[in-house]
Every structure is written in structure tokens, then in C-alpha cells.
Give the backbone structure.
Amino acid sequence: MRISGADFVMPVSCDFSLPVMSRIRQHFDDKYIKDISAAVIRTLNLLDLPPLHGKKIGITVGSRKIDGLIDVLKTLNCFLRGKGAFPFIIPAMGSHGGATADGQRFMLAGLGIDEGTTGMPVISDMSVVQVGVYPNGLPIFCAKTAVEADYIIVLSRVKAHTSIKGEVESGLCKMAVVGLGKHLGAINFHKQGYHKLAELLPNVGNVIFNKVNTLFGLALIENAYDRLFMVEAIPPSQLVSREKELLLLAKNKMSRFFLDEIDVLIVDRFGKDISGAGLDPNITGRSITPLPITPQVPIRTIVALNLTDASHGNATGIGGVDITTQTVIKSIDAQSTYVNAFTSGALSAVKLPIILANDEDAIRMAIRSVPCNSISDVKVVHILDTLHLGEIEVSSNYIHKLSGNLKITLLDSANMKFDNNNKLISNL
């Protein structure tokens, strides 16, 4: 069967006026680090470090885009080389990059991370060694490059996870367990069952921190505007306990919708560089695993228009979308997408939504499908992606409810516009 929205003809008319969209600014705490290098040096100087002369030190780097990450890595390099050490980068991203060494190196290069930008070589190797055992008998794996290094530094952003909900979620422990676990380690972790992962994550993290010579952890927290808000170096003995505290802070800094409900959410782009789930379920309420997610705001229909280039075809998260376009489908690389799905066990994450020919068809069909007395009643929201909710567009029927809300500023209004290929011309 050929899957294509190009031949689809709607049996009822979609020839209606699209809503006027008002661009609004949602106000979050906008404090951020202005001098990243100085902040990194300050926190590193608080550590009591052993002699590092001649030591080989691996630094974990994952597959997500993080504000100021290259500056953080360059500063780490200078700091460690100043102590006579030989730092290098370990791609720590489980099965991403098609679960190949070249694929993971390529993903880092796509984030601008290589020896030229950081001063450190990238040593990409999928080999693992066993460092422990899960309760069900499966081995706990860690990257051979990490085990053989004199020390490792576990560097990670701390944030709410897309499906693991516990005292630690996405951060230092997950970087060690899943990231450094490489493909085999990620598989065995997820085989424990999603209902057990929150409990296991800190315990297995401690196994790896204790088995591998962990020099320290470096936790990064971003604000709601995707800017680096905090960087903190953490001694090995405090990695788990401090991550618990930092997660609460990170959740408080998250972006959100200051709206009551959304009938149609139009998302310009989704992808692995946006969220491990493509679109952050903490924002959409769409879980791609067996565990439910409580939505911030009820959303009826989600339309996704593009897959990010930095995803390299990995369309994990498309299963949380209702309607998409031929553009997205043509961007999907089945190998990287399916490897990710089979590794995590979240097969629903890659199920295909309704596919339509272009952006305008997708948007019109989404609006037309909402049960309502009049098309003018449909509440439509347009965002760049689930990471950037500072400026969004809302249909004009929101405005009277938002009037007087000090967390929102109305910027301007405009009709939806499309180019000659019926692609949405975004104002975001």
C-alpha cells in the first residue's frame, strides 16, 4: 500500500477562513549565565581534585543541543590541560546515531562538537564492558572507553524526563546508565520495564559512578527560554543526592502554556534535538511509552509540519502526533528511527499519524475535525517547537480571556500565510 496524502480528497468542504493569529509573549524567569566560561571555572575551583597530570579523562556528551555547551567544553579542556591531563569526549547517547560509532560522531558534529571547536578529540566506540547486574539478571554495561579512562566527567543537562517520573529523571544518572551504556546498555535498562525505571535509575547510576573512576559530575540547567541558567560541579559522592535537588529547580524553570485548553496545536518542527520524545510530553501530554503523562493543558489535536535536520531522520515521537505532512514522511530514516524504538521498547513512539500533502491541508483538516458549533470557536495555537514557548501564536478567540494576564503580552496579529507550495510561512 502506498501511504500518501497527496491523493486524499476531503469529502466535506475545507474552504473556510482560517483564524487570525495573535503573536503573544509568555513571560518566564529570564535569568541566564552571561559569562559561561567564568561560571564553569568558579564551580570547578570549588572541587577538591586529585593530581591529574598525565591522566586521560573522558567527558560525556549526549545528543541534545544545550545552550553554551561548546563554551563549557572548551573551558573544561583548558582547565584540565592546565593540570596536565589529556581530556577527550565520549559520545554518550545510547542507541542514537543508528547505534554506530560513526553515527554518534556524526551527531556530535551536527551539534558543532568536534576537536576543532572544543580542543578535545572525540573517541567514538560502541564497545561496552559489564560493571554490574540488574535484579532480573541482565548485565549492566558501561562504555569501554569510560572504563579504561583514568577518570570520567559525567556532563549532562538536568531536566524533567519525557516518561521516567521519579526523584531523578533526565540528567547525570541517565547519562551514565543509558548514555554510557551505549546500545547494549540502553537495551538492558529499558528491558526492566518502564514502571521500574524511575526506581532503578539512581541505583544503577550509583553502580556506574562507583565502578568507573568518576572525577565529578557537571550539571547544566536551562531556563524556559533555552538559555543556560546554572552550571554546577558535583563531587562523586553527592551525584545522586544533588541531582534530586537540581531536578526540582529545573522543573520550576520549565516553560509552559498559560492557556486553558488547545483544540489544535500546530508545531513547526519536532525532533531528537528538541526532546528525546521529539515533542516533549511534559508540554503536550502525549506519552509515547506505557506510562501516562499529565498534560499541563488539554490538547485535542497536534499537527507537526517538519522534522528537524539535526534529527538525521530519527522521527521518534511522531507517534504522539495526529496529523503530519509528506515533507515529514520524506525526511524519515527508518534505520535510525527503528533502532531507537526497538532499543527503548517504546514502539508507539514511531507509529505514523494521518499524512496529508502539505501544511495548509494538514492545518485545515485539523481545524475541520474539531467538534464544534462553528469553525470560529476552534482554539488554535502555533509554536516553533516544545522547547520554545516564550513567543507563540494563538487564535483571536483566546484574546478576551488573556486580557489582563500579567504573564502574557500581546505583540501583533496577522492572517495565516502560505507559500506557493502551501507551506506555512511562520512568524515565530
The radius of gyration is 22 Å. The CA atoms of residues 403 and 410 lie 9 Å apart. The longest strand covers residues 214-222.
